[in-house]
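2024-03-11 09:14:02 INFO worker-7 job=invfold-0412 stage=load source=structure_tokens
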């Protein structure tokens, strides 16, 4: 039963918060509007603060809830790490919307806030500092993602958690590849720009 938790995590991660929030607020589908990414930043750009806040909360909650339940039901580091990876992959490649998911930043944050709270808080602080300094959400996400394995090794040097940190980092960088190209080209949208 323990190794069914990653599958449960994947299914929870597949709940497309940005798409559902867009429908509730009467907004266009985020997969076909703005940056075409079903995530908080895109919703913020074309939908405003309220729907973006709901999207962010929902995506963070997905990651946090899965890890919290698994910590109670099957508190094994490997099962926890695989369940965290499952919810993250569900967000990236959701089965319910033809595998067209977001970039996973908020869901990864939710995973870390419960799995290793100090890692989650450091990642959040890193994101905020970079975002305020440079006003690029993608750059903030990339810097935080690249520091995640370092924070995990420092604060929770458990092999399964380190592997999770590396896996999430690699996937986040991969999902941000178009943003990386835009950052180098000087065409990436800044926070607050429409």
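2024-03-11 09:14:09 INFO worker-7 stage=emit residues=194
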């Amino acid at each position: 039963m323990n190794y069914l938790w990653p599958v449960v995590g994947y299914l929870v991660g597949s709940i497309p918060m940005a798409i559902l929030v867009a429908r509730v607020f009467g907004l266009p589908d985020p997969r076909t509007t703005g940056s075409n990414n079903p995530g908080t930043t895109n919703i913020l750009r074309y939908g405003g603060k309220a729907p973006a806040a709901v999207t962010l909360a929902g995506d963070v909650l997905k990651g946090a809830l899965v890890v919290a339940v698994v910590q109670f039901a099957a508190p094994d580091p490997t099962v926890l790490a695989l369940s965290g990876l499952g919810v993250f992959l569900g967000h990236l490649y959701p089965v319910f919307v033809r595998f067209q998911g977001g970039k996973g930043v908020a869901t990864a944050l939710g995973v870390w806030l419960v799995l290793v709270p100090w890692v989650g808080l450091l990642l959040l602080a890193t994101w905020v500092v970079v975002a305020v300094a440079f006003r690029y959400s993608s750059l903030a996400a990339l810097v935080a993602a690249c520091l995640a394995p370092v924070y995990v090794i420092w604060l929770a040097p458990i092999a399964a958690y380190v592997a999770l940190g590396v896996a999430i980092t690699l996937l986040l960088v991969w999902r941000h590849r178009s943003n990386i190209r835009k950052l180098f080209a000087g065409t990436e949208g800044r926070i607050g720009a429409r």
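2024-03-11 09:14:09 INFO worker-7 stage=report msg="The radius of gyration is 16 Å."
2024-03-11 09:14:10 INFO worker-7 job finished
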